[in-house]
Write a structure and sequence with these properties.
mainly beta; Neuraminidase; 8-stranded antiparallel β-sheet; 4-stranded antiparallel β-sheet; globular
């Protein structure tokens, strides 16, 4: 078991981070055997990259590459207590030509659903979070990548092939398309913040220079950007409880190639802090003051963010 505690500073004060590891055995597809994940277990960590982390109704949902099974953990458990995988959801349908391959997962409290970006079938699936049943499914760009849920309950999808952000209703009806400029034509993930979009971009195939996070309006114009990143993957909105209600929230960025999570001001994209101690962070989720970091090595790190503490630092095992 590994438990790491450290501090980082932002413009609004110090944050305390307690990191715990979750991992588990993972199968490539559904079968008749057991599938058990163990929170805080680092000895039997899966080597399959985490491709989805979401929290809904005090449950943590973890999807991994090339598996249509989502593992469900107790997200309300104390960070110092182990928790076994509660159940598993098999995302499947006889109408699909190929087995579901999640590229990303997002949760919606309004519909009690998970939205799964399916690379194998070029679709987004709305999945009942309790049963795993497909409620709706619709075709998207064949190179669709990240998915998130907006404050209004719509589903935001990054369509890399068409250089678009596509916003859909919960049933898959297209609400809006935002065409991105040529230098942001490879969107990996996007989140909505106050009617604007924060978009992470880099060329996945070429891993070329130009990796950045941009603030984009509904016309597709880039208002601000933030560079000095290597393979920026996922984004998550962090509610800063130490700031005033009218201030801008923070954006957590999985800076995968630099082994860190950067915290940016959502309005200016200026750097507020850095969370180190991660290894190739790939997927992020923030709920109730906890930052969940899914890694390439198959583990999920859970950071407890608590503002206003002293700047002392410690790492122990």
């Amino acid at each position: 078991m590994l438990r790491a505690s450290f501090r980082f500073q932002t413009s609004t004060g110090y944050y305390n981070c307690v990191a715990l590891l979750t991992s588990g055995d993972c199968l490539d597809q559904v079968d008749g055997g057991s599938m058990v994940g163990q929170l805080l277990d680092t000895l039997s960590a899966s080597s399959v990259a985490v491709y989805g982390v979401a929290v809904l109704d005090n449950e943590l949902y973890v999807a991994r590459d090339r598996s249509n099974v989502i593992h469900v953990f107790d997200a309300s458990a104390p960070l110092t207590s182990p928790s076994s995988c509660r159940r598993r959801l098999a995302v499947t349908s006889r109408d699909l030509p190929q087995q579901v391959r999640p590229l990303d997962v997002a949760a919606c409290a309004e519909t009690r659903s998970l939205y799964v970006s399916d690379a194998a079938n070029g679709r987004v699936h709305r999945v009942d979070a309790a049963t795993g049943r497909l409620v709706a499914s619709w075709r998207v760009d064949s190179r669709a990548w990240g998915v998130s849920v907006t404050a209004g309950g719509t589903v935001l999808v990054c369509c890399r092939g068409a250089a678009l952000l596509c916003e859909y209703t919960s049933s898959g009806q297209l609400v809006r398309q935002v065409r991105l400029p040529d230098d942001v034509a490879q969107p990996v993930h996007a989140v909505e913040v106050r009617s604007l979009y924060v978009v992470s971009h880099y060329d996945v195939e070429a891993e070329a220079t130009g990796a950045r996070v941009c603030l984009v309006d509904v016309s597709g114009a880039v208002r601000r950007d933030h560079g000095r990143l290597s393979q920026p993957h996922h984004l998550a909105v962090v509610v800063d409880h130490a700031s005033s209600p009218g201030s801008s929230p923070m954006i957590a960025v999985a800076d995968c190639g630099n082994d860190r999570v950067k915290l940016l001001d959502a309005a200016t994209l200026s750097e507020l802090g850095v969370v180190d101690g991660v290894r190739r962070p790939h997927r992020l989720c923030v709920r109730d003051g906890r930052l969940y970091v899914g890694q390439w090595d198959g583990r999920v790190l859970v950071f407890q963010l608590s503002p206003g503490l002293s700047p002392a630092a410690a790492v122990y095992q």
